[in-house]
Amino acid sequence: MAARTLHSLSTSPLFLLLLLSALSPPTKAQQPYVNNHQLACENRDFDNITNGFTCNGPRSCRSYLTFWSLPPYNTPNSIATLLNASAAEIQTLNNLTSLTTTIPTRRLVVIPTTCSCSGGGGFYQHNATYRLSGERQETYFSIANDTYQALSTCQAMMSQNPYGERNLTAGLNLLVPLRCACPTANQTAAGFRYLLTYLVAQGDSVSAIAEMFRSSTPAVSSGNELTSDNIYFFTPLLVPLRTEPTRIVITPPSPTPPVATPPQSPPVDPQGGSSSSHKWIYIGVGIGAGLLLLISILSLYFCYYKRSSKTASLIEQNKLTDSSTKRSLPTTSTNQWSIALSNSSDTTSGLKSAIESLTLYRFSDLQSATLNFSEENKIKGSVYKATINGDDAAVKVIKGDVSSSEISLLKKLNHSNIIRLSGFCIREGASYLVYEYSENGSVSDWLHSSNKKKSLTWRQRVEICRDIAEALDYLHNYVTPPHIHKNLESNNVLLDSNFKAKISNFGVARILDEGDLDLQLTRHVEGTQGYLAPEYVENGVITPKLDVFAFGVVVLELLSGKEAVTTVDKEEKEEMLLCREINNVLGGENVREKLKEFMDSSLGDEYPLELAFTMAQLAKSCVAPDINSRPSIAQVLTTLLMIVSSSIDWEPSHDLLHDSGSLGN
């Protein structure tokens, strides 16, 4: 009876259709979004996602990858070598002049590749080969997410390489399966000929990505099986394309409309009307000369009037000068507070050019705002909390005249991660700088104070690191001319009410002019022990890498909760530098246990060990004794953005401390 039933089923058209469907490849299925599952290297519950995109279309096709240009992978040749692609095609597609053209940092580069089904895994991939140099400690996690910018995953690399995590030694060649895919039957029917693997950037949305590549939001959503617009920075997203992509250009802000030029006169007919055209030329010249004369008269009148007004204003100001000073700058308006200057004429001339956009405060008003600089209002040292027009502010008292160059720098800086100077006052040899108020004090307060507040969470720590890197990147690469902070330490990183980090204390900041070739020398070495790079201490060398070194120390403080310098033996006065301790932590055997011991105990188990390891590696590279071994702040920022994105999705319940094997024991 059972055999008869089975026979009848096997001959049923419905059964045959179901059997055929089960045996056939899923030609109409789309590709699931990786959704940050790549973070847990030993979690194999999502192998169907983390190992690659399923082969559900043609066995091979033309596809495209995207890659953020970063040294040393910032030329067509170097990127092609890393990704096993054609340098000539990269040059042509991205409109570059040569194979060795340096591509600006963090520009998105489109990479043409051939995408094929893997031999036994049933996944699409484009294979690259990576050779371990041995210059730094690398893992499958760091290679996939850092070097290859999440174009691969540690799970895919572990599946396709015969070496264990603890057996990754210098000289080994690793297979790196890069994530790509071919269009499904549904996508082809809809007119999509190619799939591009796009690395999601901070602030991206599905609709913005679709618009960037002239695709459609539904096509991107269905192509990645997205059920919401929730996508993560630095994760790959497939973008269906109808035509081959071109160089990605980020649209800059609209420039100021140019001044309209009058329409050109119609060309003069050389055949006839010659005398008439000459007549109009003479009339035009006459009108122009008349207008020029009128403008000259008005200019002379304006200059005379302005000089008379200025003289009258100065006479009036002498009546308003504070009795304790001999000089005064003009008050800007009845609502603004005035400034009292010292007797130095050099100070006056230097400051006049620096204070144009700053509020000038009366000393008496600052006294009132700080309750006469009372102990109750003291924040730390010589910094006092003030209430000005109902708003909180911080007043820093400096004995002596403040540097006009510092004021000039702070006045022109415009970045959310740099403390804002709003005004100042100078009186009787002391300077009073008024800054925006940072409700949560300094990073040092949270890490090292004897009466420290609640512990910073893992996510807060990585976001603070990102904020500092954003500020330094702005100083090094976007301010003209570039500047070096030169005094970065946890005490100079302030936190606002939302724990956004802001760099402060620019008193010793140094300008790098174009002729300096990013390097200066000084005989006057200053700063805090533990944060100073060796080339600066030994030879007075000043480069942007000086800030990178100090940044690495701050990252280590945030990871460990330790100070930059700790006393090991009080009797012998032996001290341990945090920048050296990290070498012991990440070197030799039992890295996992040593790193867990190194981490701030106040974090408990509330952090992902894989990401902590990546952060520690990043910090170690920043504090490398050799200046040439340190990354640029732009490289640092790119890695940090990936870590922040990954940390946003991590939860304590997804504890990588215990289930991850990407770290050797």
Automatic annotation (TrEMBL):
One of its GO terms (biological process) is innate immune response. Residues 252-269 have a biased composition (Pro residues). One of its GO terms (molecular function) is protein kinase activity. It is found in: Cell membrane. It comes from the Eukaryota. Residues 196-239 form the LysM domain. Keywords: ATP-binding, Cell membrane, Disulfide bond, Membrane, Nucleotide-binding, Signal, Transmembrane, Transmembrane helix. It is a single-pass membrane protein. The chain crosses the membrane at residues 280-304. Its main location: membrane. PANTHER family: LYSM-DOMAIN RECEPTOR-LIKE KINASE-RELATED (PTHR45927), PROTEIN LYK5 (PTHR45927:SF6). This is Protein kinase domain-containing protein.
